[in-house]
Amino acid sequence: MKHTIDAQGKKIGRIASQAAAALMGKNSVSFAKNVAIPGIVEVINVSRADITARKREGDVYVTYTGFRGGLKSETLAELINRRGMTEVFRRAIYRMLPKNKLRDIRIQNLTIKE
Predict the structure, then answer these.
(1) In whole angstroms, what is the distance from residue 63 CA to residue 101 CA?
(2) What is the CA radius of gyration of the chain?
(3) Per-residue pLDDT reduced to its tens digit, 32-69
(4) SS3 label, residue 6
(5) Which among 29, 38, 41, 75 is least surrounded, fewest beta carbons within 10 Å?
(6) Model pLDDT for residues 82-98, shown as the tens digit of each residue
(7) Which residues pair with 81 in a beta bridge?
(8) Taking 90 as the threshold, does the pLDDT of residue 1 lie above it?
(9) What tens digit of pLDDT does each residue of 4-36 get?
(10) Are strands 60-64 and 40-44 parallel, antiparallel or unpaired?
């Protein structure tokens, strides 16, 4: 089962919540919380998503390397310049999935296209 979501002119959070629900199989008849549905979710036109200038400069992504002094932070604009819009959407969808053993399996069924 393939599910396609068009991101043109839409906000990141709205698309991420739709994609996360589809990856979990919430719209499937055979939904079960403990099973990863083998369907593929494709998000297209992510480069044309609606992102305000305030969000580009205001949103801060924080990562920690695990070492002392390893707390790194960058704005949304810096992340887009470094990794592209696909990484922004992948992180948003990944963080909306339930934090359990199935999250890595479910995120493999995600395809993001510019």
Answers:
(1) 21
(2) 15
(3) 999 998 889 999 999 999 999 999 999 999 999 999 99
(4) strand
(5) 29
(6) 999 999 999 999 999 99
(7) none
(8) no
(9) 999 999 999 999 999 999 999 998 898 999 999
(10) unpaired
Please report, to the nearest 10 degrees, the dihedral formed by the alpha carbons of residues 113, 105, 35, 5 taken in order: -10
Q: Which two tokens stand for residue 8?
A: 């043109």
Which residue is associated with the tokens 């922004």? 88
**Are 40 and 1 spatial neighbours (Cβ–Cβ below 8 Å)?**
yes
If you write DSSP's letter for every residue of 18-77 in order, what string do you get? HHHHHHHTTTSTT--TTS----EEEEE-GGG----HHHHHH-EEEEE-SSTT-EEEEEHH
Rounded to whole angstroms, how far apart are CA atoms 36 and 90? 18
Q: What's at 50, amino acid-wise? A: D
pTM score, whole prediction: 0.93
Domains delineated in the chain: 2-51+85-112 (3.90.1180.10)
Contacts of 38 (CB under 8 A, 6+ apart): 1, 109
